Amino acid sequence: MFSLDLLRDAVVLGVLLGCFYAAVSIGLSISFGLLDVPHVAHPAFLVLASYGVYLCNDQYDIDPLLAGLLISPLFFVLGLVTYRLYYETFERRGSDAAVRGIAFFFGVAFIIEVLIILQFGVDQRSVTASYIGKAWRVGDLRIPIRQLVAFAVALGLTVSLATYLSKTFMGRAIRAVAQDEEGLRLMGANPVRIKQFAFGIATAVLGIAGALLIIVAPVEPTLDRVYIGRTFCVVVMAGLGSITGTLIAAIILGVSESIVLTMFGASWAPAISFALLLGVLAVRPQGLLGR
Amino acid sequence: MQKSSIAFWCGAAVFLIVVLVLTQTIRNEYPFFAGYVILQFVVLAVAWSILGGYAGYVNFGTNAFFGVGVYTAVLLIKAFEAPLGVQIAVAAVIGSLLGFGVGLLTLRMRGIFFSIATIALAIIIETSVTNWRFVGGAAGIQLQRPPVMAPFDTYVKMLFFVQALLVVVAVATTRTIQNSRIGRGLQALRDDELAAECTGVPTLRLKLLACVISGALISAGGAPAAMYLQFANPESAFNLNYSVSVLAMSLIGGTAHWIGPILGAVLLGVTQQLLAVTISSEVNVLVLGIMLVVFVVGAPKGLIGLLRRAPSRTGDRK
Predict the structure, then answer these.
(1) How far apart are CA A175 and CA A181, in angstroms?
(2) Mind telling me how many Å the CA of B86 is from chain A's nearest CA?
Protein backbone atom coordinates (compact mmCIF):
# COMPACT_ATOMS: atom_id res chain seq x y z
CA MET A 1 0.00 0.00 0.00
CA PHE A 2 2.55 2.51 1.13
CA SER A 3 5.22 3.55 -1.30
CA LEU A 4 7.44 6.54 -1.75
CA ASP A 5 6.23 7.06 -5.31
CA LEU A 6 2.64 7.25 -4.20
CA LEU A 7 3.58 9.70 -1.48
CA ARG A 8 5.48 11.91 -3.91
CA ASP A 9 2.55 11.97 -6.32
CA ALA A 10 0.17 12.76 -3.51
CA VAL A 11 2.33 15.67 -2.40
CA VAL A 12 2.59 17.12 -5.90
CA LEU A 13 -1.15 16.88 -6.49
CA GLY A 14 -1.73 18.19 -2.97
CA VAL A 15 0.27 21.34 -3.64
CA LEU A 16 -1.76 21.98 -6.80
CA LEU A 17 -4.96 21.37 -4.88
CA GLY A 18 -3.75 23.59 -2.07
CA CYS A 19 -3.24 26.59 -4.35
CA PHE A 20 -6.76 26.07 -5.60
CA TYR A 21 -8.00 26.06 -1.99
CA ALA A 22 -6.13 29.32 -1.44
CA ALA A 23 -8.04 30.89 -4.35
CA VAL A 24 -11.44 29.90 -2.97
CA SER A 25 -10.52 30.94 0.58
CA ILE A 26 -8.86 34.25 -0.10
CA GLY A 27 -12.13 36.17 -0.24
CA LEU A 28 -13.04 34.82 3.16
CA SER A 29 -9.61 35.77 4.40
CA ILE A 30 -10.60 39.38 3.71
CA SER A 31 -14.25 39.28 4.77
CA PHE A 32 -13.84 37.15 7.88
CA GLY A 33 -10.15 37.55 8.57
CA LEU A 34 -9.83 41.29 8.14
CA LEU A 35 -13.39 42.57 8.55
CA ASP A 36 -14.63 40.12 11.23
CA VAL A 37 -17.81 39.35 9.32
CA PRO A 38 -18.91 35.76 10.10
CA HIS A 39 -19.48 35.11 6.42
CA VAL A 40 -20.73 31.50 6.46
CA ALA A 41 -22.42 32.15 3.12
CA HIS A 42 -19.02 32.63 1.43
CA PRO A 43 -18.98 29.07 0.02
CA ALA A 44 -22.59 29.49 -1.12
CA PHE A 45 -21.56 32.60 -3.07
CA LEU A 46 -18.69 30.55 -4.47
CA VAL A 47 -21.03 27.85 -5.75
CA LEU A 48 -23.35 30.53 -7.09
CA ALA A 49 -20.42 31.95 -9.06
CA SER A 50 -19.71 28.50 -10.45
CA TYR A 51 -23.27 28.27 -11.70
CA GLY A 52 -22.92 31.71 -13.26
CA VAL A 53 -19.82 30.48 -15.08
CA TYR A 54 -21.67 27.33 -16.08
CA LEU A 55 -24.49 29.41 -17.54
CA CYS A 56 -22.09 31.56 -19.61
CA ASN A 57 -20.22 28.49 -20.79
CA ASP A 58 -23.29 26.44 -21.58
CA GLN A 59 -25.33 29.15 -23.30
CA TYR A 60 -22.73 31.34 -25.01
CA ASP A 61 -19.73 29.02 -25.13
CA ILE A 62 -17.53 31.47 -23.24
CA ASP A 63 -14.29 30.16 -21.76
CA PRO A 64 -14.89 29.50 -18.04
CA LEU A 65 -12.03 31.71 -16.88
CA LEU A 66 -13.21 34.60 -19.04
CA ALA A 67 -16.74 34.01 -17.78
CA GLY A 68 -15.40 34.21 -14.22
CA LEU A 69 -13.83 37.58 -15.02
CA LEU A 70 -17.06 38.76 -16.60
CA ILE A 71 -19.23 37.95 -13.58
CA SER A 72 -16.72 39.42 -11.11
CA PRO A 73 -18.20 42.96 -11.36
CA LEU A 74 -21.64 41.54 -10.60
CA PHE A 75 -20.23 39.83 -7.55
CA PHE A 76 -18.52 43.06 -6.52
CA VAL A 77 -21.93 44.73 -6.43
CA LEU A 78 -23.40 41.72 -4.64
CA GLY A 79 -20.68 42.10 -2.03
CA LEU A 80 -21.39 45.82 -1.57
CA VAL A 81 -25.09 45.11 -1.07
CA THR A 82 -24.49 42.21 1.30
CA TYR A 83 -22.15 44.20 3.50
CA ARG A 84 -24.47 47.20 3.57
CA LEU A 85 -27.32 44.95 4.69
CA TYR A 86 -25.14 43.26 7.29
CA TYR A 87 -23.85 46.58 8.57
CA GLU A 88 -27.26 48.24 8.85
CA THR A 89 -28.90 45.30 10.60
CA PHE A 90 -26.14 43.99 12.82
CA GLU A 91 -22.94 45.98 13.18
CA ARG A 92 -24.63 49.31 13.76
CA ARG A 93 -27.07 47.94 16.28
CA GLY A 94 -24.25 46.29 18.17
CA SER A 95 -25.54 43.68 20.58
CA ASP A 96 -24.80 40.00 19.85
CA ALA A 97 -24.05 40.77 16.21
CA ALA A 98 -21.95 37.63 15.95
CA VAL A 99 -24.66 35.16 16.94
CA ARG A 100 -27.36 36.63 14.75
CA GLY A 101 -24.87 37.41 12.02
CA ILE A 102 -23.99 33.71 11.67
CA ALA A 103 -27.67 32.83 11.64
CA PHE A 104 -28.27 35.47 9.00
CA PHE A 105 -25.54 34.19 6.71
CA PHE A 106 -26.67 30.59 7.18
CA GLY A 107 -30.13 31.70 6.09
CA VAL A 108 -28.63 33.40 3.04
CA ALA A 109 -26.63 30.26 2.21
CA PHE A 110 -29.74 28.11 2.37
CA ILE A 111 -31.69 30.50 0.18
CA ILE A 112 -28.93 30.47 -2.45
CA GLU A 113 -28.73 26.67 -2.29
CA VAL A 114 -32.45 26.24 -2.92
CA LEU A 115 -32.61 28.88 -5.63
CA ILE A 116 -29.85 27.03 -7.46
CA ILE A 117 -31.73 23.75 -7.03
CA LEU A 118 -34.95 25.29 -8.31
CA GLN A 119 -33.18 26.78 -11.33
CA PHE A 120 -30.70 24.07 -12.27
CA GLY A 121 -31.85 20.94 -10.45
CA VAL A 122 -29.73 18.76 -8.19
CA ASP A 123 -27.61 17.22 -10.95
CA GLN A 124 -23.90 17.86 -11.21
CA ARG A 125 -22.87 20.49 -13.74
CA SER A 126 -19.55 20.95 -15.48
CA VAL A 127 -18.00 23.22 -18.09
CA THR A 128 -16.21 22.52 -21.33
CA ALA A 129 -12.93 24.06 -22.42
CA SER A 130 -9.98 22.94 -24.50
CA TYR A 131 -7.79 22.30 -21.44
CA ILE A 132 -10.33 20.20 -19.55
CA GLY A 133 -9.91 16.45 -19.76
CA LYS A 134 -6.30 16.41 -20.93
CA ALA A 135 -3.35 15.49 -18.80
CA TRP A 136 0.33 16.21 -18.67
CA ARG A 137 2.70 13.31 -18.07
CA VAL A 138 5.84 13.75 -16.01
CA GLY A 139 7.52 10.34 -15.78
CA ASP A 140 4.79 8.12 -14.42
CA LEU A 141 2.94 11.00 -12.77
CA ARG A 142 -0.17 12.14 -14.56
CA ILE A 143 -1.20 15.74 -13.84
CA PRO A 144 -4.57 16.87 -15.22
CA ILE A 145 -4.20 20.13 -17.14
CA ARG A 146 -7.28 21.50 -15.38
CA GLN A 147 -5.42 21.22 -12.09
CA LEU A 148 -2.46 23.07 -13.57
CA VAL A 149 -4.69 25.85 -14.91
CA ALA A 150 -6.37 26.18 -11.54
CA PHE A 151 -2.98 26.19 -9.85
CA ALA A 152 -1.58 28.93 -12.06
CA VAL A 153 -4.63 31.17 -11.86
CA ALA A 154 -4.96 30.63 -8.11
CA LEU A 155 -1.33 31.49 -7.54
CA GLY A 156 -1.65 34.62 -9.68
CA LEU A 157 -4.80 35.67 -7.87
CA THR A 158 -3.27 35.20 -4.44
CA VAL A 159 -0.07 37.04 -5.28
CA SER A 160 -1.87 39.96 -6.92
CA LEU A 161 -4.29 40.30 -4.02
CA ALA A 162 -1.43 40.21 -1.51
CA THR A 163 0.33 42.92 -3.51
CA TYR A 164 -2.85 44.94 -3.70
CA LEU A 165 -3.32 44.83 0.06
CA SER A 166 0.25 45.75 0.90
CA LYS A 167 1.19 48.21 -1.85
CA THR A 168 -1.81 50.26 -2.96
CA PHE A 169 -3.46 53.05 -1.01
CA MET A 170 -6.83 51.37 -0.83
CA GLY A 171 -5.30 48.03 0.13
CA ARG A 172 -3.46 49.64 3.00
CA ALA A 173 -6.63 51.40 4.04
CA ILE A 174 -8.37 48.03 4.22
CA ARG A 175 -5.66 46.64 6.45
CA ALA A 176 -5.77 49.79 8.54
CA VAL A 177 -9.50 49.44 9.11
CA ALA A 178 -8.89 45.89 10.33
CA GLN A 179 -6.25 47.06 12.77
CA ASP A 180 -7.87 50.14 14.24
CA GLU A 181 -11.25 51.24 13.06
CA GLU A 182 -11.52 54.02 15.62
CA GLY A 183 -8.16 55.42 14.64
CA LEU A 184 -9.28 55.65 11.04
CA ARG A 185 -12.40 57.46 12.06
CA LEU A 186 -10.35 59.98 14.01
CA MET A 187 -8.29 60.67 10.90
CA GLY A 188 -11.40 61.63 9.00
CA ALA A 189 -11.85 58.47 6.96
CA ASN A 190 -15.08 56.56 6.79
CA PRO A 191 -14.33 53.02 7.97
CA VAL A 192 -17.72 51.69 6.86
CA ARG A 193 -17.12 52.70 3.25
CA ILE A 194 -13.69 51.11 3.26
CA LYS A 195 -15.09 47.93 4.75
CA GLN A 196 -17.87 47.89 2.22
CA PHE A 197 -15.36 48.27 -0.60
CA ALA A 198 -13.20 45.51 0.88
CA PHE A 199 -16.18 43.20 1.14
CA GLY A 200 -16.93 43.98 -2.50
CA ILE A 201 -13.39 42.95 -3.48
CA ALA A 202 -13.65 39.80 -1.37
CA THR A 203 -16.84 38.84 -3.18
CA ALA A 204 -15.61 39.86 -6.64
CA VAL A 205 -12.68 37.45 -6.29
CA LEU A 206 -15.28 34.70 -6.00
CA GLY A 207 -16.11 35.15 -9.68
CA ILE A 208 -12.74 33.74 -10.66
CA ALA A 209 -12.64 31.31 -7.74
CA GLY A 210 -16.03 29.99 -8.83
CA ALA A 211 -14.68 29.47 -12.33
CA LEU A 212 -11.79 27.46 -10.86
CA LEU A 213 -14.20 25.43 -8.74
CA ILE A 214 -16.14 24.26 -11.76
CA ILE A 215 -12.98 23.76 -13.84
CA VAL A 216 -11.43 21.47 -11.23
CA ALA A 217 -14.52 19.30 -10.74
CA PRO A 218 -18.25 19.28 -11.47
CA VAL A 219 -20.36 21.27 -9.02
CA GLU A 220 -23.68 20.54 -7.35
CA PRO A 221 -25.93 22.90 -5.37
CA THR A 222 -25.01 21.60 -1.91
CA LEU A 223 -21.27 21.64 -2.56
CA ASP A 224 -20.98 24.74 -0.35
CA ARG A 225 -21.38 22.62 2.79
CA VAL A 226 -18.06 20.88 2.24
CA TYR A 227 -16.39 24.19 1.51
CA ILE A 228 -17.56 25.80 4.74
CA GLY A 229 -15.07 23.52 6.45
CA ARG A 230 -12.29 23.94 3.93
CA THR A 231 -12.43 27.72 3.63
CA PHE A 232 -12.78 28.42 7.33
CA CYS A 233 -10.07 25.89 8.07
CA VAL A 234 -7.69 27.69 5.72
CA VAL A 235 -8.52 31.16 7.02
CA VAL A 236 -8.29 30.24 10.69
CA MET A 237 -5.15 28.19 10.21
CA ALA A 238 -3.59 31.04 8.25
CA GLY A 239 -4.07 33.49 11.06
CA LEU A 240 -6.94 35.88 10.48
CA GLY A 241 -6.34 38.19 7.58
CA SER A 242 -2.90 37.02 6.54
CA ILE A 243 -2.79 36.50 2.76
CA THR A 244 0.60 34.76 2.77
CA GLY A 245 -0.67 32.61 5.62
CA THR A 246 -3.70 31.73 3.53
CA LEU A 247 -1.51 30.33 0.79
CA ILE A 248 0.61 28.30 3.22
CA ALA A 249 -2.40 27.01 5.14
CA ALA A 250 -4.21 26.08 1.94
CA ILE A 251 -1.22 24.10 0.73
CA ILE A 252 -1.02 22.29 4.08
CA LEU A 253 -4.70 21.40 3.75
CA GLY A 254 -4.32 20.34 0.12
CA VAL A 255 -1.35 18.10 0.82
CA SER A 256 -2.95 16.48 3.87
CA GLU A 257 -6.19 15.81 1.99
CA SER A 258 -4.29 14.39 -0.93
CA ILE A 259 -2.20 12.10 1.27
CA VAL A 260 -5.22 10.83 3.20
CA LEU A 261 -7.03 10.28 -0.07
CA THR A 262 -4.17 8.15 -1.38
CA MET A 263 -3.54 6.22 1.84
CA PHE A 264 -6.97 5.72 3.39
CA GLY A 265 -9.46 6.36 0.59
CA ALA A 266 -11.93 9.04 -0.31
CA SER A 267 -14.39 8.33 2.49
CA TRP A 268 -12.05 9.77 5.12
CA ALA A 269 -11.18 12.92 3.16
CA PRO A 270 -14.04 15.21 4.34
CA ALA A 271 -12.91 14.98 7.94
CA ILE A 272 -9.38 16.18 7.23
CA SER A 273 -10.05 19.88 6.93
CA PHE A 274 -12.17 19.88 10.04
CA ALA A 275 -9.72 17.82 12.06
CA LEU A 276 -6.93 20.21 11.07
CA LEU A 277 -9.17 23.15 11.94
CA LEU A 278 -9.97 21.74 15.38
CA GLY A 279 -6.33 21.03 15.99
CA VAL A 280 -5.37 24.58 15.08
CA LEU A 281 -8.15 26.07 17.19
CA ALA A 282 -7.11 23.99 20.17
CA VAL A 283 -3.34 24.44 19.90
CA ARG A 284 -2.71 27.73 18.16
CA PRO A 285 -5.91 29.78 17.93
CA GLN A 286 -4.13 32.78 16.43
CA GLY A 287 -3.10 30.69 13.41
CA LEU A 288 0.25 30.26 11.67
CA LEU A 289 0.83 33.93 10.93
CA GLY A 290 -1.63 35.50 13.35
CA ARG A 291 -1.99 39.23 13.63
CA MET B 1 -42.90 30.86 41.69
CA GLN B 2 -44.60 28.02 43.52
CA LYS B 3 -47.91 28.75 41.84
CA SER B 4 -46.38 28.86 38.39
CA SER B 5 -44.71 25.50 39.09
CA ILE B 6 -48.05 23.92 39.87
CA ALA B 7 -49.53 25.49 36.74
CA PHE B 8 -46.63 24.17 34.68
CA TRP B 9 -46.90 20.59 35.90
CA CYS B 10 -50.70 20.64 35.49
CA GLY B 11 -50.20 21.88 31.94
CA ALA B 12 -47.66 19.12 31.28
CA ALA B 13 -50.00 16.46 32.67
CA VAL B 14 -52.90 17.75 30.57
CA PHE B 15 -50.65 17.75 27.50
CA LEU B 16 -49.63 14.12 28.04
CA ILE B 17 -53.20 13.01 28.72
CA VAL B 18 -54.43 14.74 25.56
CA VAL B 19 -51.66 13.06 23.56
CA LEU B 20 -52.55 9.68 25.04
CA VAL B 21 -56.25 10.15 24.32
CA LEU B 22 -55.51 11.24 20.77
CA THR B 23 -53.40 8.14 20.12
CA GLN B 24 -56.29 5.98 21.34
CA THR B 25 -59.08 7.71 19.41
CA ILE B 26 -57.71 8.78 16.03
CA ARG B 27 -57.33 5.85 13.67
CA ASN B 28 -55.45 7.60 10.85
CA GLU B 29 -51.71 7.23 11.36
CA TYR B 30 -50.56 10.20 9.33
CA PRO B 31 -51.18 13.00 11.88
CA PHE B 32 -48.89 11.17 14.29
CA PHE B 33 -46.30 10.59 11.62
CA ALA B 34 -46.16 14.33 10.91
CA GLY B 35 -46.67 15.36 14.52
CA TYR B 36 -43.73 13.25 15.64
CA VAL B 37 -41.37 15.43 13.61
CA ILE B 38 -42.75 18.59 15.19
CA LEU B 39 -42.43 17.18 18.72
CA GLN B 40 -38.90 16.06 17.90
CA PHE B 41 -38.02 19.60 16.84
CA VAL B 42 -39.54 20.98 20.03
CA VAL B 43 -37.19 18.75 22.04
CA LEU B 44 -34.18 19.73 19.94
CA ALA B 45 -34.95 23.47 19.95
CA VAL B 46 -35.60 23.62 23.68
CA ALA B 47 -32.45 21.61 24.41
CA TRP B 48 -30.40 23.75 22.03
CA SER B 49 -31.51 26.95 23.70
CA ILE B 50 -29.92 25.93 27.02
CA LEU B 51 -26.50 26.55 25.56
CA GLY B 52 -27.40 28.71 22.56
CA GLY B 53 -30.02 30.89 24.17
CA TYR B 54 -29.07 31.38 27.80
CA ALA B 55 -25.32 31.17 27.40
CA GLY B 56 -25.12 32.68 23.90
CA TYR B 57 -22.89 29.92 22.54
CA VAL B 58 -24.23 29.10 19.08
CA ASN B 59 -23.93 25.34 18.73
CA PHE B 60 -23.96 24.29 15.09
CA GLY B 61 -23.30 20.71 16.07
CA THR B 62 -26.92 19.87 16.79
CA ASN B 63 -26.67 17.37 13.96
CA ALA B 64 -23.69 15.72 15.69
CA PHE B 65 -25.67 15.13 18.87
CA PHE B 66 -28.76 14.11 16.92
CA GLY B 67 -26.82 11.68 14.76
CA VAL B 68 -25.05 10.22 17.77
CA GLY B 69 -28.49 9.62 19.31
CA VAL B 70 -29.70 7.90 16.15
CA TYR B 71 -26.60 5.73 15.85
CA THR B 72 -26.56 4.82 19.54
CA ALA B 73 -30.04 3.42 18.96
CA VAL B 74 -28.91 1.66 15.79
CA LEU B 75 -25.97 0.09 17.56
CA LEU B 76 -28.10 -1.08 20.51
CA ILE B 77 -30.72 -2.56 18.19
CA LYS B 78 -28.12 -4.28 16.05
CA ALA B 79 -26.07 -5.66 18.93
CA PHE B 80 -28.64 -6.43 21.66
CA GLU B 81 -32.07 -5.72 20.18
CA ALA B 82 -32.47 -3.32 23.09
CA PRO B 83 -35.95 -1.87 23.78
CA LEU B 84 -36.81 1.75 22.99
CA GLY B 85 -36.47 2.96 26.58
CA VAL B 86 -32.92 1.63 26.83
CA GLN B 87 -32.04 3.18 23.46
CA ILE B 88 -33.15 6.61 24.65
CA ALA B 89 -31.47 6.31 28.04
CA VAL B 90 -28.15 5.18 26.60
CA ALA B 91 -28.35 7.85 23.90
CA ALA B 92 -28.80 10.46 26.63
CA VAL B 93 -25.72 9.16 28.45
CA ILE B 94 -23.59 9.12 25.29
CA GLY B 95 -24.93 12.56 24.37
CA SER B 96 -23.94 13.95 27.75
CA LEU B 97 -20.46 12.45 27.43
CA LEU B 98 -20.12 13.95 23.98
CA GLY B 99 -21.36 17.25 25.38
CA PHE B 100 -18.72 17.09 28.06
CA GLY B 101 -16.02 16.38 25.49
CA VAL B 102 -17.21 19.15 23.19
CA GLY B 103 -17.34 21.52 26.12
CA LEU B 104 -13.82 20.74 27.29
CA LEU B 105 -12.44 21.10 23.79
CA THR B 106 -14.30 24.14 22.55
CA LEU B 107 -15.85 26.24 25.27
CA ARG B 108 -12.76 28.37 25.66
CA MET B 109 -13.44 29.62 22.16
CA ARG B 110 -15.76 32.53 21.64
CA GLY B 111 -18.33 33.54 19.10
CA ILE B 112 -17.95 32.14 15.65
CA PHE B 113 -14.92 30.03 16.56
CA PHE B 114 -17.07 27.96 18.86
CA SER B 115 -19.69 27.61 16.13
CA ILE B 116 -17.16 26.50 13.54
CA ALA B 117 -15.58 24.05 15.96
CA THR B 118 -18.97 22.42 16.53
CA ILE B 119 -19.56 22.10 12.77
CA ALA B 120 -16.13 20.51 12.57
CA LEU B 121 -16.95 17.94 15.23
CA ALA B 122 -20.18 17.03 13.48
CA ILE B 123 -18.38 16.31 10.22
CA ILE B 124 -15.64 14.32 11.94
CA ILE B 125 -18.18 12.13 13.75
CA GLU B 126 -20.19 11.73 10.56
CA THR B 127 -17.08 10.61 8.67
CA SER B 128 -16.25 8.10 11.38
CA VAL B 129 -19.76 6.62 11.26
CA THR B 130 -19.60 6.53 7.46
CA ASN B 131 -16.52 4.36 7.76
CA TRP B 132 -18.01 2.09 10.43
CA ARG B 133 -19.25 -1.04 8.66
CA PHE B 134 -21.07 -2.58 11.63
CA VAL B 135 -23.72 0.16 11.69
CA GLY B 136 -24.17 0.16 7.94
CA GLY B 137 -21.47 2.54 6.71
CA ALA B 138 -22.28 5.06 4.03
CA ALA B 139 -25.10 3.01 2.54
CA GLY B 140 -27.14 3.09 5.72
CA ILE B 141 -28.97 0.32 7.53
CA GLN B 142 -32.50 -1.08 7.52
CA LEU B 143 -34.13 -1.67 10.90
CA GLN B 144 -37.00 -3.91 11.98
CA ARG B 145 -39.53 -2.53 14.43
CA PRO B 146 -40.29 -4.86 17.35
CA PRO B 147 -43.97 -5.56 18.17
CA VAL B 148 -45.79 -2.57 19.60
CA MET B 149 -46.57 -2.29 23.32
CA ALA B 150 -49.94 -2.54 25.04
CA PRO B 151 -52.07 0.62 24.88
CA PHE B 152 -50.97 1.62 21.39
CA ASP B 153 -52.11 -0.05 18.19
CA THR B 154 -49.27 1.12 15.95
CA TYR B 155 -45.60 1.81 16.53
CA VAL B 156 -45.77 5.36 15.18
CA LYS B 157 -48.40 6.30 17.76
CA MET B 158 -46.21 4.89 20.50
CA LEU B 159 -43.24 6.89 19.23
CA PHE B 160 -45.43 9.97 19.17
CA PHE B 161 -46.26 9.47 22.83
CA VAL B 162 -42.65 8.77 23.75
CA GLN B 163 -41.55 11.94 21.97
CA ALA B 164 -44.25 13.87 23.86
CA LEU B 165 -42.78 12.52 27.10
CA LEU B 166 -39.36 13.71 25.97
CA VAL B 167 -40.84 17.15 25.27
CA VAL B 168 -42.06 17.34 28.86
CA VAL B 169 -38.68 16.19 30.19
CA ALA B 170 -36.79 18.71 28.02
CA VAL B 171 -39.06 21.64 28.85
CA ALA B 172 -39.09 20.84 32.57
CA THR B 173 -35.30 20.64 32.60
CA THR B 174 -34.91 23.90 30.72
CA ARG B 175 -37.47 25.62 32.90
CA THR B 176 -35.70 24.48 36.05
CA ILE B 177 -32.40 25.73 34.69
CA GLN B 178 -33.88 29.07 33.70
CA ASN B 179 -35.23 29.71 37.17
CA SER B 180 -32.14 28.55 39.02
CA ARG B 181 -28.68 29.90 39.76
CA ILE B 182 -27.42 28.03 36.70
CA GLY B 183 -29.70 29.94 34.35
CA ARG B 184 -28.86 33.30 35.88
CA GLY B 185 -25.17 32.46 35.75
CA LEU B 186 -25.44 31.50 32.07
CA GLN B 187 -27.27 34.72 31.27
CA ALA B 188 -24.63 36.69 33.12
CA LEU B 189 -21.81 35.14 31.13
CA ARG B 190 -23.78 35.65 27.93
CA ASP B 191 -23.97 39.37 28.59
CA ASP B 192 -20.36 39.76 29.63
CA GLU B 193 -18.21 36.74 30.26
CA LEU B 194 -15.32 38.62 31.79
CA ALA B 195 -17.52 40.58 34.19
CA ALA B 196 -19.32 37.40 35.19
CA GLU B 197 -16.02 35.65 35.85
CA CYS B 198 -14.84 38.58 37.95
CA THR B 199 -17.94 38.58 40.12
CA GLY B 200 -17.41 34.94 40.95
CA VAL B 201 -19.61 33.15 38.44
CA PRO B 202 -17.92 29.80 37.69
CA THR B 203 -18.27 30.37 33.94
CA LEU B 204 -16.43 27.33 32.60
CA ARG B 205 -18.23 24.93 34.95
CA LEU B 206 -21.60 26.42 34.04
CA LYS B 207 -20.88 26.22 30.33
CA LEU B 208 -19.78 22.59 30.69
CA LEU B 209 -22.96 21.78 32.57
CA ALA B 210 -25.09 23.49 29.91
CA CYS B 211 -23.24 21.59 27.19
CA VAL B 212 -23.75 18.25 28.96
CA ILE B 213 -27.47 18.77 29.59
CA SER B 214 -28.13 20.17 26.14
CA GLY B 215 -26.20 17.32 24.50
CA ALA B 216 -27.97 14.64 26.52
CA LEU B 217 -31.41 16.00 25.61
CA ILE B 218 -30.63 16.38 21.90
CA SER B 219 -29.22 12.83 21.66
CA ALA B 220 -32.21 11.46 23.58
CA GLY B 221 -34.54 13.30 21.20
CA GLY B 222 -32.71 11.81 18.24
CA ALA B 223 -32.65 8.19 19.43
CA PRO B 224 -36.28 7.29 18.51
CA ALA B 225 -35.70 8.57 14.96
CA ALA B 226 -34.01 5.25 14.10
CA MET B 227 -37.20 3.33 14.84
CA TYR B 228 -39.37 6.07 13.39
CA LEU B 229 -37.73 5.87 9.95
CA GLN B 230 -36.78 2.16 10.23
CA PHE B 231 -33.65 3.25 8.44
CA ALA B 232 -30.54 5.24 9.26
CA ASN B 233 -27.75 6.58 7.11
CA PRO B 234 -25.02 9.04 8.05
CA GLU B 235 -25.98 11.61 5.46
CA SER B 236 -29.49 12.13 6.81
CA ALA B 237 -28.76 11.50 10.50
CA PHE B 238 -25.98 14.11 10.47
CA ASN B 239 -27.67 16.51 8.06
CA LEU B 240 -26.75 20.15 8.55
CA ASN B 241 -30.45 20.97 8.10
CA TYR B 242 -31.07 19.82 11.68
CA SER B 243 -28.60 22.35 13.00
CA VAL B 244 -29.95 25.22 10.97
CA SER B 245 -33.60 24.29 11.58
CA VAL B 246 -33.07 24.14 15.32
CA LEU B 247 -31.14 27.40 15.31
CA ALA B 248 -33.88 29.02 13.23
CA MET B 249 -36.63 27.73 15.50
CA SER B 250 -34.95 29.06 18.62
CA LEU B 251 -34.19 32.44 17.09
CA ILE B 252 -37.66 32.75 15.55
CA GLY B 253 -39.32 31.93 18.84
CA GLY B 254 -36.89 33.93 20.95
CA THR B 255 -34.37 32.57 23.40
CA ALA B 256 -35.02 34.63 26.51
CA HIS B 257 -37.71 32.25 27.80
CA TRP B 258 -38.24 28.49 27.39
CA ILE B 259 -41.56 29.10 25.66
CA GLY B 260 -39.73 30.77 22.74
CA PRO B 261 -38.14 27.65 21.21
CA ILE B 262 -41.45 25.80 21.59
CA LEU B 263 -43.29 28.51 19.68
CA GLY B 264 -40.60 28.60 17.00
CA ALA B 265 -40.46 24.82 16.65
CA VAL B 266 -44.24 24.49 16.36
CA LEU B 267 -44.54 27.40 13.92
CA LEU B 268 -41.67 26.33 11.68
CA GLY B 269 -42.38 22.61 12.11
CA VAL B 270 -46.03 22.93 11.09
CA THR B 271 -45.13 25.17 8.15
CA GLN B 272 -42.50 22.70 6.97
CA GLN B 273 -44.83 19.73 7.27
CA LEU B 274 -47.53 21.53 5.31
CA LEU B 275 -45.07 22.62 2.62
CA ALA B 276 -43.47 19.20 2.34
CA VAL B 277 -46.90 17.70 1.67
CA THR B 278 -48.23 20.40 -0.62
CA ILE B 279 -45.21 21.62 -2.60
CA SER B 280 -41.80 20.03 -2.15
CA SER B 281 -39.04 19.55 0.34
CA GLU B 282 -36.78 22.00 -1.52
CA VAL B 283 -39.23 24.83 -0.93
CA ASN B 284 -39.13 23.72 2.67
CA VAL B 285 -35.48 24.65 2.95
CA LEU B 286 -36.14 27.90 1.10
CA VAL B 287 -38.81 28.88 3.62
CA LEU B 288 -36.44 27.95 6.42
CA GLY B 289 -33.79 30.26 4.98
CA ILE B 290 -36.17 33.14 4.35
CA MET B 291 -37.79 32.92 7.77
CA LEU B 292 -34.39 32.78 9.41
CA VAL B 293 -33.19 35.90 7.60
CA VAL B 294 -36.45 37.80 8.09
CA PHE B 295 -36.62 37.10 11.81
CA VAL B 296 -32.96 37.70 12.50
CA VAL B 297 -33.15 41.04 10.71
CA GLY B 298 -36.67 42.13 11.65
CA ALA B 299 -37.34 40.64 15.07
CA PRO B 300 -34.06 40.21 16.92
CA LYS B 301 -35.77 38.95 20.06
CA GLY B 302 -38.06 36.57 18.19
CA LEU B 303 -41.75 35.99 18.67
CA ILE B 304 -41.62 36.48 22.42
CA GLY B 305 -39.85 39.79 21.81
CA LEU B 306 -42.73 40.83 19.55
CA LEU B 307 -45.33 39.67 22.07
CA ARG B 308 -43.64 41.42 24.97
CA ARG B 309 -43.50 44.67 23.09
CA ALA B 310 -47.30 44.59 22.95
CA PRO B 311 -48.94 46.99 25.46
CA SER B 312 -50.31 44.33 27.80
CA ARG B 313 -46.98 43.61 29.41
CA THR B 314 -47.16 40.49 31.52
CA GLY B 315 -44.73 39.65 34.31
CA ASP B 316 -41.16 39.10 33.21
CA ARG B 317 -40.39 35.47 33.93
CA LYS B 318 -42.64 32.84 35.27
Answers:
(1) 10
(2) 31
